[in-house]
Amino acid sequence: MADAFADWTQRLRASDAGALNELMEAMHPVLLGYATRIAGDRDAAYDILQEAFIKLWRVRSTLDPERSLKALIYRIVYTLALNDQRMKRRETMAHTTLQTEAETRVATPDEELDAGRLGERMSAWIGELPPRRQEAFRLSRFEGLSHEEIAEVMDLAPQTVTKHIMLALQFLRDRFRSYKASEQGL
Predict the structure, then answer these.
(1) Quick one: which of 156, 155, 179, 175 has its CA closest to 167?
(2) Structural contact between residues 55 and 43, judged by C-beta atoms closer than 8 angstroms
(3) Which among 28, 60, 76, 136 could disulfide-bond with 164, CB atoms 3.0 to 4.6 Å apart, if both were Cys?
(4) Rounded distance, CA 46 to CA 37, Å?
(5) Domains delineated in the chain
């Protein structure tokens, strides 16, 4: 099997999609079990594997023939599964917090309308960001990835990721200030 991994590494570096398909067929059952154990959810594990092979394809030109392709794909799956768990924990905590807040305070219809309107505006403003900046912002704020993880996913330097997120936040703050000023008639 070691020869197969060496062959797949060389073929992936040469952008041979057939090598990716062969690797997926060979590794899918065992990686699915591995991802399911970490994520605790078979459906999530399927998504994790799909992301893992997409990520492997994106970094194919940087594969080092001296390093283990098998170890790399396991590391990618492990990282993605942990990120999935982290995101689920954050969602659970956020849901619990929101539920607690909702139980202690009832919003007025005007407040609900304002919140919905602001949420729509925020989504539109995020959509105005340049594509790479938008991707970095979404991975950070919605997917819960660290700057280092985003740098790895986007194949950027961590400092570039930090700059993208900083500029995205600055843009969104400016948009929000303008929005609040217009709401107040300033």
Answers:
(1) 175
(2) no
(3) 136
(4) 12
(5) 1-106 (1.10.1740.10), 108-186 (1.10.10.10)
In degrees and rounded to multiples of 5, residue 64 shows phi and psi of -100, 115
**Which pLDDT score, from 0 to 100, does residue 97 have?**
64
Over residues 21-50, the pLDDT tens digits come to 999 999 999 999 989 988 888 888 999 999
161, 150 contact by CB (below 8 A): yes
Residue 80 phi/psi, 5-degree rounding, is -65, -40
Q: What is the pLDDT of residues 59-115, one digit of tens each?
A: 999 999 888 899 899 989 989 998 888 877 776 776 666 566 555 655 555 555 555
Q: How far is CA 160 from CA 64, 87, 126, in A?
A: 24, 23, 18
Tokens of 183: 């709401």
Distance separating alpha carbons of residues 20 and 60, to the nearest angstrom: 10
